Amino acid sequence: MELDKIEEKDLKMGEANQVVFSETMQALAETDKDIIAVTSDSRGSGKLVPFGQQFPKQIVEVGIAEQNLVGVAAGLASAGKKTFAVSPACFLSARALEQIKNDICYSDNPVTLVGISSGVSYGALGTTHHSLHDYAVLRAINNITIVAPADNFETEQAVRLAAKHDKPIYMRFGKKAMPFLNEENKTFEFGKGRVVREGEDLAIIACGETVYPAWTAAKKLEDEHGIKTTVVSMHTIKPLDVKLLEALAQNGRPIITVEEHMVNGGLGEACASHLFQNGYKNPFKIMGIPDEYTVTGSQVEIFDHYGISKEGIYEEGKKLVKI
Amino acid sequence: MTNKELKLKSVFLRKSLLKYIYKAKAGHTGGSLSCVDTLNVLYNRVLNVDPNDFRNPNRDRYIQSKGHCVEALFVTLADRGFFPMSDLETLCQYKSHYIGHPTKKVNGVEQNTGALGHGLPICVGEAIAAKLDDKDYRVFTLLGDGELPEGSNWEAFLSAAHYKLDNLYAILDYNKQQITGDNSEVMNTDSVREKLQSFGWAVKEVDGHNLEELEEALNSGPLEKGKPNFIIAHTIKGKGISYMERNLKWHHGVPSPEQYELALSELNEAVAQI
Questions:
Q1: Size of the A and B interface in Cβ pairs below 8 Å
Q2: Which of A12, A213, A313, B161 has its Cα between 20 and 30 A from that of B174?
């Protein structure tokens, strides 16, 4: 089916990406005893209870101690284990940042850091439990790939690739069930954005759980105004797919970026930086969480409040295309 | 190598580390002198490592958590054949691999360290992997007493005991001084034996400048089956150079030409007495 002919009702609903993460871990561990999950009292929220029951020797519990989680993971990886360090993204990427910088990235230990319940997934639990800084701080560290899969397909592929990857990776997953966004395109590799909808008037570059609202906004822009919009799941925030980015910018169309992250230092600024330094002057808008105390609410309510929604992205699209 | 030759090597390593600190005009002199005897014993009597096959998966691991005392590590590795001692002529120079903290770009270095409180958690991971894979390699780290307050150490102390890692050895270079003053003034870490015992570790105290005591503690198998090993090596900061011993000025002091000559003459005298 052509991408721009798909209706919202055609999108097959999947599970939460972090459920698919744990299912994929189980599938991998069936045939590979070197797959190890390291957890910080986080196996429940990481959906790894069945994994732990089936493979008790392949889960290492460190208790609520994120610095130790990352250090221990570095040691396991150094000893040849295919190590996934699993902890809520908020704690993993802040509490253990020095361990990520030194023990994983600088020492080049090929750990996959898995930030669960990422972004504002924890909703009303508040800022302590939100990770709106992780792309920014990790983008500033050498030797790490940053991945935010949009749907179950991308999640499974990312986890399978990570098990074979010999370099540090950070990936983050949310708690909300996500629809499959492009069942036609079965290719996935780190550093290559995935086009989930095509159109020449506007481009929306999103990642993680914001790709779906971006897709619905694009559909509405086309249905109501005939604005044809390309939507990209830029699942790899670093290294950025600059080839695809430049291809999108070529025809001068406006570009919107959307992310479940503060507008400072994330996907949007990465795209803007590359485009501006390479002579592109496309109309450009970064959508995300602003630099303020985040409003209280569920993930959906926070998204709606800041316009990371079908309506919010639709309105920005209209503005940029000057309808 | 005889015990006498091992003692002579300790003096040679002191001379070498002073030489390169003097040349580089930088280095952690006092701490390197306090831990160099431990490194001598580790690399010449304890560790199963091969300079020509360093990444052999069955090797013993040594991760230097007190990374700032890299000069002691570099001269010990060079002497053991991991790289030519003359490479250290470039210590801390532009584009040199021999920087002021351990880096894996140097043959023989397990992990990049330097930020404190990082070595032990990595060792816990390596030791768990050895148990999972049923391998008999052992894992060693050297902790500074100044880094004991780092919370990550105490997270790792808990996990090492939880996983019964009797293949893990943490050696405390216990010279009782750090950059600002005595440990007891900066942050009291007294009763370290009792603290570690209460965390589930087996503890042994040795004279960290007595090579035989060090070797006995590190080579006799686990102190207690099912418990990680904590070796408290009582040491003297600046050990071997009279005017540096217990003098905080030498935490990262660099000798003048006259001081350097004096240090060499003291070390030559030490050789004569062995």
A1: 98
A2: B161
